[in-house]
Each structure stands twice: as structure tokens, then as C-alpha cells.
Amino acid sequence: MALVLNEEQRLLQDTARDFLAERAPVEALRKLRDARDDTGYDPALWREMCELGWASITLPEAYGGLEFGFAGLGLVIEQSGRTLTASPLFASAVLGASAILLGGSEQQKEQWLPAIAAGEVTTALALEESHHHRPQQIDTTLTPAGDGYTLNGSKCFVLDGHSADQLLVVARSSGERDSRDGLSLVLLPRDSAGVSVQRTIMADSRNAANIRFEQVNVPAEAVIGEAGAAWPVLEAVLDRGRVAMAAEMLGLAKESFERTVAYLKERKQFGALIGSFQALQHRAAQIQVELELCQSVVLQALSVVDEQPEQLPLMASLAKAKLNELAKRVTNEAVQMHGGIGVTDELEIGFFLKRARVAMQILGDTGFHKDRYASLCGY
Amino acid sequence: MEQLETFRSEVRQWLEDNCPQSQRSLAAPEEQYWGGRQGSFASEDARLWFERMRERGWTAPEWPTAYGGGGLNPQQARILKEEMKRINARTPLYSLGIWMLGPALLEYGNEAQKQQHIRAIVNGEIRWCQGYSEPGSGSDLASLQTRAEDMGDHYLVNGSKIWTTSADKSDWIFCLVRTDPAAKKQEGISFLLIDMASPGVSVTPIELISGESEFCQTFFDNVKVPKENLVGELNKGWSIAKALLVHERKLMSEMGSDSPREQVPPTVAAREYLPFEDGKIADAQLRSDLVDYEMQMQAIALTHFRTFEERAAKVHSAAPLVMKYAGTEAEKVKSELLLAIMGSRGLGWEGEGFSASELDTLRLWAMSKAMTIAGGTSEVQLNVIAKNALQLPQS
Ligand SMILES: Cc1cc2nc3c(=O)[nH]c(=O)nc-3n(C[C@H](O)[C@H](O)[C@H](O)COP(=O)(O)OP(=O)(O)OC[C@H]3O[C@@H](n4cnc5c(N)ncnc54)[C@H](O)[C@@H]3O)c2cc1C
Ligand SMILES: Cc1cc2nc3c(=O)[nH]c(=O)nc-3n(C[C@H](O)[C@H](O)[C@H](O)COP(=O)(O)OP(=O)(O)OC[C@H]3O[C@@H](n4cnc5c(N)ncnc54)[C@H](O)[C@@H]3O)c2cc1C
Questions:
Q1: Phi, psi of B159 (to 5 degrees)
Q2: Which of B90, B95, B184, B301 shows the smallest number of beta carbons within 10 Å?
Q3: Do the Cβ atoms of B392 and A284 come within 8 Å?
Q4: From the CA of A270, which ligand is nearest?
Q5: If one looks up domain B2-94 in CATH, what number appears?
Q6: Does residue B255 surpass a pLDDT of 90?
């Protein structure tokens, strides 16, 4: 059954929830922010998360994985949305591991997957080239040179781009600017000659970077899959990422909503708990309606990754669009319903508000996914 | 799992063998069979289909076989529903008795009442209507004033009910009546079954904005009701009414997916009525409205499935509580969207110049306005969610 958790899944969810609440609450993100931490996450914590198996949940046993399915990983990610935990979970365990699993050669899988699962290697997906998600608009070039290639171009909004060991770069081998044909995926060390990384400080206090590639030498074996034919793999990786991000936003939305509902039951004005005012009750109830719908959408999208990959494009766009809207609405209402303290840095609600805005842009905003959904449906 | 798959293939085969071809399409309102003393079949096939389904108890698939039901568990009932939907099989018997009264009687009725009424409902012999609302008591249902006085060997009922759907076509009415005027309002209400053939009962139809007169005002003038028609305990009718409302809301939230009328799906209407450019609807606003609606419907459909799975797994969530609101509000959005897509061709009221489906679209648009009022208004739904799901303080 896809829409109700089984015993094992519930156990995983509870473990993740307890661990993150204790070891990586929102307070931990505040500390990383205030200390202007160089890494942007706690590597010791990441190792512990890997010891719990979180980076290997979806991987086949042959590569040191747990084969627990994407649904399991989604539950962990949802919990990390409740605590806004900064970690390589998304960039490495979702994007990096999926790209190598779906597109890599046997040798690449053996080389990288166990290392990612163990937390020894982290990755970042260098995709975007403009301020909107346009996965086909790639100008970065990969041109044959000697036995390998030369990489030139620049990327922005690369999550974990300044901290990851390896960069997964989307580049064009051939074809028109907006074409799906001719794209390639290469994996190279971040410290390769010709790679320059500029860390960007963003609203959510998480990791992102701008990266330039100037005459970077890329050996032939660094190409994931076939050069010029990366689109099907890339699209599947992006869809997995979208579903995972939707799961994170579900956790984020639930947490900020629950905190707000709790506040409605404790704050008094006009001699009454503000939660007794119908103007607030109805808005909160409408959010509950949307939350229930979004819960079903995310559960279904997660199970589709494992069980019905042919439906993944449609479900990924449904999930990302719906959760974008939910996260925006909930975080706005959370601030508003807290009144004056809602706009203070002291209250953690502001962290949820800011993370939601960044998450909404990751791998496609609402308009992108509505357009894609409509196109996939033929209108 | 395997057993269920065997069940599915048996059901599929049985439907294949027993559902007449003519019964494998949406039923127009005049083709629906509602049973009762005035009930008639639109065709010989409709009768055949009804009788075959009744034989298996599948007019009420989940009810106990002891009273003529199908005795299916929730998973099996869902499979039957899915398999019927797969071939577009019509609902063999439309009935408030099945959807609303029956589940309450099975839970709260005594053995004699079950014997008298349940089988008659399954067999479509008696058609029921619902007598809750009154001119002065709508959302605030518990303020109802229709009186039932204890006269020793019977109750004497006086008052009137309003918005009684199909009262003029029904045989019996299940009513909420006040039996203790002195008690707190919820505590003086009883649940009473009344034969509408009793002297003193009269009905007047009311015309709606859709042009139909689906509902009536029902008057009770010194109506004598036998004491054995009281369901549950005296003055404890409110809890039965609440349990029954849950069934009504569930039903209404599913209405959209099982609408009896031919309403063109918006995506199909878009292809017929709108210009496309490069494979996309040219009007950006309508395209955006359409995708919003389609996404919402997919989310609602998934949530319906989730409620099924949760019920089977005995998991509790707030999902069932939000379905009436979400489903009926989405139906309104759909109707507005269809009018927008059809432009002036969606505005025909009757007669020449419009196709039957265009005319239906407008009538259903008018009906969609009623769905967020009937069975507890949308505002009342939000109150219920705030109270029961969020446990917000009450003023
Ligand atoms: C940027 C900023 C600058 C400010 N500057 C000043 C200043 O210079 N001097 C000063 O004195 N104050 C100042 N304030 C305070 C401001 O006036 C209060 O924040 C405001 O009146 C709301 O009160 P509250 O924060 O206590 O929220 P609350 O009153 O606790 O409200 C919390 C939530 O409950 C809702 N709510 C409350 N009552 C009802 C009701 N009856 N019906 C429905 N909903 C209700 C509110 O709309 C809100 O969403 C400032 C606030 C801000 C944000
Ligand atoms: C198609 C249809 C079929 C029906 N069939 C039947 C039937 O078979 N049997 C039967 O008994 N009844 C039936 N009804 C009646 C239905 O249950 C009532 O119409 C409904 O409960 C609302 O009551 P009302 O019409 O008196 O509106 P009111 O209760 O007067 O409501 C007027 C407005 O005030 C709002 N409002 C009321 N209270 C609150 C509150 N506390 N907070 C916020 N807003 C509030 C409402 O939401 C609404 O917008 C039917 C109604 C319709 C439309």
C-alpha cells in the first residue's frame, strides 16, 4: 500500500524525527549561520546520518545500500524539513547517487556509490545557468580534446557547490541552446584545475555557489553515460530531486503550521485565545485541507519513483507545484498569525519562511511545473 | 493480497457476464433507478441489471448478508467499485436508504427495525428522504422545532421540514424531532422514522436556480407515529444524526467522481471549444485555470484512495474530515471553468441552438452552487475542521 506507511517505514520516520530533533534542530542552523561556518553543515553529523544508513536507503545492496526504496528516503527528508537540517542529503544522496545509479557504468557505480553511501564522498549538481530553472538551456560546453574533453562555462545556484568533493556538471556536447539533444553529464573533482567556486550566501542560510569552468580537462571516464545523450538520465534525476524537495517542503509546512496552531492556542488578545477567532480558524482549516491533499500527493510521488517510473514526470511536477504553493501559503500565514514576533529573527518561523522561498526555486518554480504538467497532459 | 486478486478476477468475469451493454454508460437522471413504491425502470435492461445485483446483495455491498447485503469487506467493496467503474457500469439502485439511513440503522437500530427496514432498502422497495433542516434551523440544526409529543401509545408530530430532497417521490422519511423542549438543545432531540402515507403529512415542491424542483417543504400536522419507530434512545437522536452526517459528507465528497450527469471533462471541453497554439491552449489564463483544477482533482482523487487505504489499515487521519469541503469546492471550480471554456455556448438555458451537453453544463453549474450548502455548508465544514482536526479553542 502506497498511501499508508507500513511498520518499517513508520519506524524509520520515528527514528529520523527523534535523531534530527535532538541532534540538528533549527537552532543548529542558526549557529551555522551566525558562525559563518565554512562548510555550511556539520560533517560529523553527516557521518552519523550516513551511519544510520540515510545516504544508502535507496541504493542496491550490491553497492552497500539498504534497498529500502525512495519512499523511505522521502520520509527521512520530510523529517529534515521539520528541522531545516543542513546536510548533503539532497545534493549527494538524492541527486548525485541517482545520477550515477541511473546513468553510470558498472565501474562508476562501484567506484562512487559505496563511497557516497558511507559519507566519504559528497557531490553537487552543477546545472543552472540562469536565475530560473531551465534544465535544457545549457551553454556550458564539453568539447573533445585528445583522449578526453575540455569543459567551459559557468553555473549558478549549485547546491553544496562550495563544499562537495565531486561536481556533476551538465554540459552541451552538441545541439541548439534549448535542445534536449546533445547534453552530457560529467563527474569531476571540485579542485580540478580551471574550476573556480564562489560561495553565495542565500536567504535560507544553506549552501549554494556560483561556479566557473575555464578550459577544464575532463578525462573520458568522467562522463556519466554517453556523451551527448544525457537527457533521459538527467530528467529522471531531476524528477527524483523534485519529489524529494516536495517531501522536504511537506515537512517544513507541517512543522511551521503545527507551531502556528500551537501559538493560536496560547496567545490571548481581547480576553480570548486568538485561536477562537473564526477569521483565523477558517484560514487554518483551509491550510489543513491543503495539507491533507499534499500529504497524499507526496506519498504517491514517492512510491511512483520506486514502482511506476513511467508516471514520474507527471507526479513530480504535480508534487513540486503543489508543495511550492503550500509552502508559500503556510509560511506566510505562520508569520502573519504570530503577529509582531512573527517578523523577528528570534522566532524560528522566519527560518521556515526563508527556506521555503529557496526550496520553491530549486528544480522548478510553480509556473515551470504547471506548464510542464499541462504540456505532459497535452494542453 | 492474492485472495483480493482472485476476487477481482471473479468480479470482473461476473460483471462481464451479467452487466447488460446498455447499462455500461453514465445514466441520465431519468435513467436512474431510485426504487420505492413510485419507482420504475427506464428499460428492461435496467430491471435485469438491478435484479442481478440485488441477488448478490451488491446494491449494498458492505452490509451483512443476514439482511440481504453483500457482506464484502472494505477492500473487496473497493474492488467492486473499481471494476464497475472500469466498464462504466451504472449504479443499479440510487438510494438515500443505502447511503445514509442504512449505516445508522445498522449501528443504532434494534433487531425489529433492522428486519423491517434494511432488507427493504437493499431490495429497493422503500425510498427514503431526510427530514433534518427546518425553515429556522439550517447550519444550527440542533435548534430544530418540529415536536414529537409522547401520547402514551404513539408520538404526535407537528411542524415542518424544508429542503427535503425528493420528499414528493419518497415513501418514508427519517426525521429529527424535538422530544424534550426543556432540555439543552442537543439533548432533547430524537431520531424518528415516519411513513409518509400517514394522515397529516403533506409536501410542496420548491423550484431551484437549476430549474429543477428536487426538494420540497414537508409539513406534519398532528401526525401519529407508532412508538416502535423511534431509533435508539429517546432524546439521544443527536449522536445518530451526527454519525449519519459523516456518511452524507463522504457521499457528497465522492459525488464529483460519480456524477450521474453527462458533464464534459474540462480537458475534453478545452479541445473542443478553445484554440490551441503549438500544442498549448492559446488563452494563458484559461490554461492556467485548467491546470490548477486538474492538479487539485488529482490531489483529491489520491486523497480518496488514501482514505480507503487508511480505513483498510485501521489508520486514523484528518483526511476524511476535509473531503466534503475539498470535493464540493472543486466541483464549483470545475463548473465555472466549463462555463469559461464554453463562452456563450455554455450559457444556453433550453431549446434550440445548444447541444444537450451544453445545456446540462449550465444546469450542473447551477447545481454545483448547492453542493457547498447541502450536508453542512463549507463554512460549517471549516468550523468542524478547526474544532476536531486542529482542536482550536471555541468561542
Ligand atoms: C515592524 C513593526 C513595527 C512596530 N512598531 C511599533 C511601534 O513603534 N510602537 C508600538 O507601540 N508598536 C509597534 N508595533 C507593534 C504592532 O502594533 C503590533 O505588532 C500589532 O498591533 C499586532 O499585535 P501583536 O504583535 O501583539 O499580535 P497579536 O495581536 O497577538 O496578533 C496575532 C495574530 O492574531 C490576529 N488577531 C488578533 N486579534 C484578532 C481578532 N480579534 N480577530 C482576528 N484575528 C485577530 C492578528 O491579526 C495576528 O494575525 C510594531 C510592529 C511591527 C511588526
Ligand atoms: C441541494 C440541497 C439538498 C438538501 N437536501 C436536504 C434534505 O434532503 N434534507 C434536509 O434536511 N436538508 C436538506 N438540505 C438543507 C441543508 O442541510 C441546509 O441548507 C444547510 O444545512 C444550510 O442551512 P441553511 O440553508 O438554513 O443556511 P444557514 O444555516 O442559514 O446559512 C447561511 C449562511 O451562513 C453561514 N453560516 C451559518 N452558520 C455559520 C457559522 N457558525 N459560522 C460561519 N458561517 C455560518 C452558512 O455557511 C451560509 O453561508 C439540502 C440543501 C441543499 C442545498
A1: 140, -170
A2: B184
A3: yes
A4: 1
A5: 1.10.540
A6: no
Q: Where in the sequence of chain B do the CATH 1.10.540 domains occur? A: 2-94
Going by C-alpha positions, the residue among A334, A40, A329, A62 that lies closest to residue A205 is A40
Which part of chain B has CATH 2.40.110.10? 128-235
The atom of ligand 1 lying closest to the CA of A343 is: 53
Domains assigned to chain A: 7-120 (1.10.540.10), 124-229 (2.40.110.10), 232-376 (1.20.140.10)
Model pTM above 0.95: no
Distance CA A10, CA A2 (A): 13
d(CA A111, CA B63) in angstroms, rounded, equals 59
Cα–Cα–Cα angle for A243, A249, A254, nearest 5°?
A: 130
Residues of chain B with CATH 1.20.140.10: 263-389
- Give, using CA atoms, the residue closest to atom 44 of ligand 2: B379
CB contact under 8 Å between B310 and A4, yes or no, is: yes
Reported in sequence order, the residue ranges of chain B that DSSP labels E, i.e. its strands, are: 128-131, 147-150, 154-165, 172-178, 189-195, 201-206, 215-226, 230-231, 276-277, 280-281
| Separation in Å, CA of B299 to nearest CA in chain A | 5
Q: Match domain B263-389 to its CATH number in 1.10.1790.10, 1.20.140.10, 2.30.40.10, 3.90.550.10.
A: 1.20.140.10
Cβ pairs bridging A and B (under 8 Å)? 128
Per-residue pLDDT tens digits for A195-251: 999 999 999 999 999 999 999 999 999 999 999 999 999 999 999 999 999 999 999
Between 3.40.1550.10, 2.40.110.10, 3.40.50.1100, 2.60.290.11, what CATH number should domain B128-235 receive? Answer: 2.40.110.10
CB contact under 8 A, A293 and B279: no
